[in-house]
Structures are given as C-alpha cells and as structure tokens.
Amino acid sequence: MARTKDLLLAEGMRLFGERGYAATSVAQIEEAAGLSPGSGSLYKHFRTKEELLSEGLDRLLAGGRDLAERLGVRDSADPVAELTSVVHAGLRRMEEDRDANRVLFRDLDAFPDLLGRFGQGEIVRFHHAITAMLIALAGEDGKGPDWEAVTVVLQGATAHYWLLADRFGGHPTGVGEQRFANAAAVLIAALIAGARSGAATAATAGAVRESQERPEE
C-alpha cells in the first residue's frame, strides 16, 4: 500500500513537472504508476489531485530542512571554496527536485497557500542559513554590506541560472556550472574580504586611540 502511494506521488510530480498540473489527469497518474487508468485507485491514497501535489511539496520541504541545517562554515580561511560549495548545492537541489521546481514556477499561482508554504519553508529558510554563513565568514558580527540583500542576489542568480539551463538543456551562453559557481563565489568573497579588512582597520584604529588616550605613568 505504501509503495503504491509512493509510486503515485513520484509519477504525479513527474507528470506535473513535464506537462503542468492542469494538463495532468488523475487517470494519467494512475496509468503512469502501473494502475488501471480511470479506476479511481489514486483516491484510495489521496483525497484529491491537489492533495497529492501538496504532499509532494511537503516531501521537498522536508529534504530542504536537512540541507539548510548542514549549511555552515567549514573553512573560514577559504570563502571562495565555501561559497562555491553553496552554489553547487543549490543547483544540485534544484535539479534533484526538478519536477517540483517546474511546478513552482509554472503552476503554484493557482494555489496561494502552497506557494506561501514553499516561500517560507524553502526560500526563506535557505536565506536565513546562507545569511548566517556570510556573516560568520565576514567576522566581527558581519559588519559591512547588507548580507541579507547579498544572499538574495546569490539565491536569485542561482535560481535564474538553473531555470535557463533547465529550459534550454544547458545554459544558452555556454557558461557551465563550474564557471558560474566560481564567478558567484569570487564576487561575494570580495565583499567578505572588504568587510574583514574594514573590521581589521577599525580594530587597529581603536587600539591606537586607546594607547593615545592612556595617561602617562
């Protein structure tokens, strides 16, 4: 019984991704799952087609929760490597959940509740995790650029790269994933280096002022 439900869920999300939610019928999902089309077998596991979509997105969000929790600074001495890893992880996650992401960008306007859950459960959660990582990499409480906005730029660029690559079967410019990830990482690492330099300069200036203000013995 559980295996049949999993098959219906997997095939339903695949068809939604390939054809669109509205263009996919319950009978087509049943047939793709190896059941008699039009038999109503889907309704033994899901009350409606929308409930199948909702559970598919819930499974996606559950997987994202684990990934967001694993995001962290492993080597603050090499921000480029850390950021490159984050970009690759983001692209890999979007590709692994290609069908759900296609549904998100094409069909979820019709389901505002599901769209809101995805926004909070996926986009906002990763935004918080990546922002915390950037602040930790910058040091000194993350003083410097608006790291929340920088994270939006990184997320937006990564999503846009994936969308074009998915649409065209590869990015139409010919820029591969490694080049894109490295370029994004280098740009943001430059901001981090500037923040670190500014913090170091401020600390040095503070030490000088303190020594100048100290009364002579």
Description:
Helix content is 74%, strand content 0%. The chain has 217 residues and is mainly α. It has 2 domains: 1-47, Arc Repressor Mutant, subunit A; 60-213. 27% of the residues are buried. Residues 200-209 have low confidence and may be disordered.
Summarize, please.
By secondary structure, the protein is mainly alpha-helical. The protein is built from eight helices and no strands. Helix content is 74%, strand content 0%.
* Biggest pleated-sheet summary: none
Output the structural class.
Answer: mainly alpha
In terms of DSSP E residues, the strand content is under 5%
Question: Any idea what the shape is?
Answer: elongated
What is the gyration radius calculated from CA atoms?
23 Å
Q: Count every beta strand, where a strand is a DSSP E run of 2 or more residues.
A: 0
Mean pLDDT: 86
